[in-house]
What does this fold into?
Amino acid sequence: MSNPILTMIPGPTPVHERVLEALARPTVSHQYPAFVEAYRECLSRWRRIGRSESAQPFVVSGSGTFAMEMALVNLVAPGERVLIVSHGFFGDRWEQIAASFGIECDLLRAEWGQVVSKERLAAQLEGHDYTAVAVTHVDTSSGTEAPVAEYASLLDGRNEYLILDGVCATAGIDERFDDWGLDVLLTGAQKAFGAPPGVAILLVSQRALETRRNRASVPAYSADWLRWLPIMDDPSKYFSTPPVNQILALDEAMGMVLEEGLDARIARHRELAALMREGLAALGLELFTDASCRADTLSVIRHREGIDDASFRAAMAGQGVIVAAALGPIAGRAFRVGHMGSIGNAEVERTLGAMRVALGNS
Ligand SMILES: *Cc1c(COP(=O)(O)O)cnc(C)c1O
It folds into this structure.
C-alpha cells in the first residue's frame, strides 16, 4: 500500500487501490445502465458473503449506526420489547436507539472484556416476551467476539427475531445467515470490507420482511425497508439518490472478498490476529479481552505501567501509524488496533515496529 499513513484503527480501515480506483470513476447517473448493473451485482455479492440463499439485501447510504436503527425500527414496534446482549459501547448503543423510538428494552451485560454465556441468555428469555434479541458480533470497544452460533441455537425455533450487528466482524469473521437463522445481519462498508465509509449494508430474512409488511407504518421515512425494497429488486428505480461512487467501491471490495474466498479471508484474519498477538507479547504488552472470547479483527491492549496514552498514540502517529484510543471504563488505560479488511502481514509488522519505538520514547 503506497499511502504513507497506516490507519490501524477498528474502522475506517485501509482501502485497497483497486477499491480507490472504483471510487474515483466518473460519477454517473444512478440510472446509468453500468451503474445499475454494479448495484445489482453488489446486492447479490452481499447475499453470498452473508451465506444466504433467500435473505433480502439492502445497500443504502448510511453508517453502521444507521443500519442498526434501520433494523430496530422496522422490526420492533414502539411499546414492544427488545433484549440487548451487550459487550460494551456498541451493545449499549442499541439501548439509546430503542429509547429514541419508545421501544422497551432489557440489557444483559457482561463485564467488559467478557461475554454473556448462553445459559444467562436462556434464563433471561424465560418468562419474557421479546420481539427481538440484538447482539453485537464483535464489540469494537472491548474486543470481544460473542458466541453467536450458541445464541442462535438457543433461539432456533423460537419467535424472537435475531438481529446481529456485524459491523466489526462481517467479511472478517465467520457468519452464516441461513445456518444461524438470523433475521438481520448488518454492517458498514468501512470495517472488514475495507471500503470507504458511507454505506449501510443489511441482510433481512423473509420472515422479518413479512413482519414489516404487516405493520401499517414504522417511525421512519428513509429508514423504512418498504421504501427501499423496490430499488433493491430493481436498482434502476428511484427513491433517494444512492451514493453512486461508494457503491462502485463497495462492489469492487465485495468482488475482492469473493475472489479471495470467504474461508481463506477468515483464515487470513485469524493469522493476522495471531501475528499481532505474538508481536505484542514480545513487547511485553497484554490484551485486555479475556482469552476465551477475543475477536480476530482487532486487539484491545492494556498500556504498560507508566505509559501515557495520548503521548503513546502521538508517538505512533509521528511514525505514520494511527491507532485508536480505548473507550468507556478502560479509556486511557488501553488502546485499540484494528487488523481487518485488506491489510496483510507487512502492515502488522509496521505497526509492531512503531509500537516498539513509541514505547521506548514515551
Ligand atoms: C463501528 C461500529 C458501529 C458503528 O458504525 P458507524 O459507521 O460508526 O456508525 C456499530 N457497531 C459496531 C460493532 C462497530 O464496530
The two ends are 28 Å apart (CA to CA). The chain has 13 helices and 14 strands. The domain at 6-12+261-361 is CATH 3.90.1150.10 (Aspartate Aminotransferase, domain 1).
